[in-house]
Every structure is written in C-alpha cells, then in structure tokens.
Amino acid sequence: MEQEKITVKAIIFSSKQKVWDYYTKPEHITKWNYADPSWHCPWAINDLKIGGRYVARMESKDGSSGFDFEATYTEIKEGESFSYEFGDRFATVEFKELSQSKTEVIITFDPETIYPVELQKNGWQSILDNFKKYTEAH
Fold first, then answer.
1. Of 54, 55, 106, 136, which is the most buried if we count CB atoms within 10 A?
2. Alpha carbon 54 to chain centroid distance?
3. Is the pLDDT of residue 129 over 60?
C-alpha cells in the first residue's frame, strides 16, 4: 500500500531569487540543513542539473552519529521548482513568489516506512523552519 505524500511549507520574507539561491547553494545549505540544534551540516555538494547529485552530510555535533543525505535530480525548472529521487522515494520543492519580498517554499515528499509520518513531517518542517530563519536573517 502506497502512503500519501507529506507536505511541509514556509513563507520566507525574501525575494524568490534569494530564496532559490540560499536553498540550492552549498555555502548556504550548510548553515540551515539540520532538524535539531544538536546537529549540523558540515558540508554539502549540489550539482543542480538533471541527473546531478545532491549530497549533504548531516551529523550530531558531538560526532556520535550522522549520515549523508543523497539525491539525484529528476526535474528542474530554474528558479521555480525541482524534483529529486533519494533511494526509492521522491521529493519536489516549489518556490512560489507571493510578492517581491515574500516567497512560499513547498516541499512534498514520499514518506519512509520505518518512522511515523508525523515524526517525518516534523523533522522536514524543522529543517525548513531553520532555512526560513537563516534566509531572513542574512
């Protein structure tokens, strides 16, 4: 049985171009890509093209655990949206301009079967909230 996709959203008070750049450039990804303050993202690689790889290292600050989140791009609409596959799952990230200084980011992804849906949704929302805070502060 296929599970319903999970969607998380945030409205970022910044231009769509800045939001796109901060979401896709490795020098920014490392500043916001973690769900909990005890974790961090020490490095990221992003080859933003169809078939290109995205890899972000996510690990606890004390070094006790970590993993590489790896994905391959399947569709890209420059400045608008992109989709990627990670393992046997897929995700899409959309950037909607609400005004010159307000952009909505919408992430829709396939849940995994190991962890509860609510836990997965909360984790992805927490990362997106970190992105919002970082982008609006810089």
1. 54
2. 11
3. yes
